[in-house]
Every structure is written in structure tokens, then in C-alpha cells.
Amino acid sequence: MSPVLELADSAASLREEFDRSFSLAPASPAAGSVNLLTIRIGGDPYAIRLADIRGLHADRRILELPGPLPELLGVTNFRGQIVPVYQLAALLGKAAGAAPRWMVLAQASAPLALAFEAFESHICADAGQLIASADSAGLGRPREGVRTEAGVVPVLDIGALAAQIEARAAHASQGPQP
User: Fold this and answer.
1) 119-175 pLDDT, tens digit each
2) DSSP the chain
3) How far is CA 131 from CA 90, 109, 120, 146, 155, in A?
4) What's the pLDDT tens digit per position in 52-96?
């Protein structure tokens, strides 16, 4: 067979394989693995479990509003639903770096979004990469970490942060007690 025909056959074979790959179901993560997003808050790396969020969004317009919590940046619109947006750096007691560009819509009983400065990557960590934290510094604080090429990155407990926000907002809306 001539080199030109071999090349044409090879290209046709690669094209068929490429096209077939779109008709197959996506590969499931390995058993025991966890999908995480790595982000930056105030210059420090953190991770968020993909199962704890409904979506990742960039450059959403936030309408500033006063509120009962100082971490409240305002509200934004997600598919016709008005959602409060909280600054993740402030919730963690960190000084904010740049203005938050990214936000995640939390998987919570009430809709809420958490804003942060930078999204870095998606990683699929196996069970051996997850480690328990010796210090669970408080509600919403990282209680586990994930080993990455850059070192151990704390994993945020989005459910605990959402519960903390809801409890604080409910307490603040009751006003001062006599």
C-alpha cells in the first residue's frame, strides 16, 4: 500500500474513533473517588466537593443590598430565582483578595450562592488522597483535606457553611431580644 493511502486509512480510522467516542456514555468516576473543584480564597487554595453544589458560575451580576449579615454581598438571579450571595472569604474569617469573580450555587435547603476570587481546576481524587483534618476549627471550617500535586488542600464543608448562614440569618431577622 502506498504511503498516501496508508495515511488516508489512518486518518479515516482516527475520525471514526473520534466520532464514536461521542456516542458512548461518559466514563463514571472510579468507585470511592470524589470530584472536587479547586479554588482560591484570599490567595489560599481550597477545594469544594462537586456533590455539594448545584453549579459554578463566573461574572454574574450581583445587586448590592444591605442585609443582616456582613458577609452578604447582595443578590443575583438564577433562572428567575433571586438568590443571596455571600463572600466566602469573609465567612471563613479571611481578608478578601480581589473582588469575587466566581460563585457556586450551594446544594442547600434554601438557595444561596458563595462567591470567591478564582476557580483553578476540577480534580477526581481517590479515597487515598482524602485525609481527615486533626483540627475541625468550627462549623464550615475544613474538616478534611485532599492531597494534590501542590500539597494538601483543605476541603470546605459547604453544607455546614450553608447551615451556619441560615441559622445566623434567622437569628438576625428576629432582632434584639428583650
Assistant:
1) 999 999 988 888 886 554 554 556 789 988 888 999 999 999 999 998 988 888 776
2) --HHHHHHHHHHHHHHHHHHHTTSPPPPPPTT-EEEEEEEETTEEEEEEGGGEEEEEES---B----SSTTEEEEEEETTEEEEEEEHHHHTT----SPP-EEEEE-SSS--EEEESEEEEEEEE-GGGEEE-S---STTS--EEEEETTEEEEEE-HHHHHHHHHHHHHHHHT----
3) 25, 27, 21, 6, 10
4) 999 999 999 999 988 889 999 999 999 899 999 999 999 999 887
Q: How far apart are CA 158 and CA 53, in angstroms?
A: 8
Residue listed under C-alpha cell 450562592: 113
